[in-house]
Structure formats: structure tokens, C-alpha cells
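mind reviewing both lines:
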Amino acid sequence: MDYEVEKIIKNALEEDIGRADITTAAIVHDTIIGEGLFLVKQDGMLAGFEIVENVLKLVDKSLKFKKFFKDGDKVKKGGIAAKVSGKASSILTSERTALNFFQRMSGIATAASQFQEKINHTKAQIIDTRKTVPGLRLIDKLAFKLSGCANHRMGLYDMFLIKDNHINAAGSISKAIEKCKEYRKKYNLDSKIEVEASNIEQVREALNCEVDMIMLDNFDLNEMKKAVEVINGKSEIEASGNITLDSVKEIAETGVDYISVGAITHSVQALDISLELNIEKPSQK
């Protein structure tokens, strides 16, 4: 397991358990054995099995986890995604944290796949944004990738993305790009440079500076089509700004390469998954 992901899981468990799960400690003796079924209560796409298993194992290494699907699989309401067996007390203590990750990640994967399915007849690909829950970006972006869609930059450190405020600070798109290229050369970076454009004039200016990607921010369809013609394959193109399931098909058909949808992560609806615990061995207390 990735160190940063493990740290996120440990923080989540510490946040929930604190000094002890006092309810479970008071009621459920360690000799009680149980089996927990992860029940899917609505249609969707599953993501996060490895995270769920690691939550369980960090609480109790002796817990046994078995999955009946894999990440990226679609499941119908009423399906059993996985099961965990072992000490009932450990299952109960890890339940909420495991479900929080599983529900959120599956919700993100479900939404991302719904957008991608709308545009599979085009070359365009749905990508994510940095509009994630603080501290959970790795998890949110992992869920996005497990859906079959693609990640954009992970953070501020792995790609230059010149936005309107950067342009205002530099004085122009050309000056902003020049400064990024100087910085990239100075520190021997191979990071791509993307520029946010809000009109055709800015697209032309960015194109003249030979950038790797141009973001068409809140362009209407006619403007977007014109921008694609102007760029003509000389730069990759990202469409961005209030993309919905109703609008994404027409946007993809303009010929853009990528479509970023912030709502998939910042306003995700968790997939409804519950855990049903069955006691196999009664208390000997």
C-alpha cells in the first residue's frame, strides 16, 4: 500500500476510533465471530476494494476479506460486493471508516463512468480536477482512475496551469508562458504547460507560444468549434466549466481531447452501500 494512502486511512481510523470504540468494547466480546456482507443498495460502479481491505486489516490483521467484484465493475441494487469475516468487534469498529471510503469512491467512479459513457463515440476523455476533499485527494483521484477515466494534474507541483489570475499578475498570456518556460528550464523540469483561455484571441496567443494544452474555459459550442479549428492539433485541448451530463456529448463532439468535470469529486453522491453483520458464534461471556 502506498505510504500516503496508508496515512490517510490511519488518520481516518484515528478520527473515528479515538481512544476506543466504547460501545463495541462494552457489548461485543472478542470471542464473538461474525461475517459482514457489503450490500449494494443502488445501481452503480464499485471502486475502493483495496482501500476497504486495508481499513479492515489495519484494525485487525486476522480479518478475512473476500470480494465478489473488482474495481470498475458495475453492480445492480441488491448485489453483495464483498464480505469480511472474523472477530465481530473488529468488524464493527472498522465498519464506518470502511464504508465511508467505499461509498465515496464508488460514488465518484459511478459519476465519472456516466459522463464517459456519454462520449465514448468520440476521442474525448473525462478528466478530474483539484476540486477534491482536502486531505482525500489521493483517494478521490484513485476512484476517478478506477472508473476508467483519467487523472489531470495531482496538485500544483506536477504541471504548469496558467489561469486568469496568473495572466493578470504576469501582464499577458505570452509573458506568463515565458516565465513558466524559464522556470522549467532553470529547474530542469519536464512538466507540461497548460493555459486557460476565455476567448479566441487568448487561444491564438497561447497557440503562438507553443504550449502543451489549452483549456477552453466556459466557451459556448460555436466558440469551442472555432477554437478546435484554430488549434488544429497543434496543442491538446481541454474543455472546462459547468459541464453536465446533458451538455457533455455535444462538447465532446466539437473535437476536444479532454473534458474536466469538477462536480464529480466536489459534489459527489456516495453510492449507497451498507454492511450487514451476521453473528456466527454467540457470546461466551
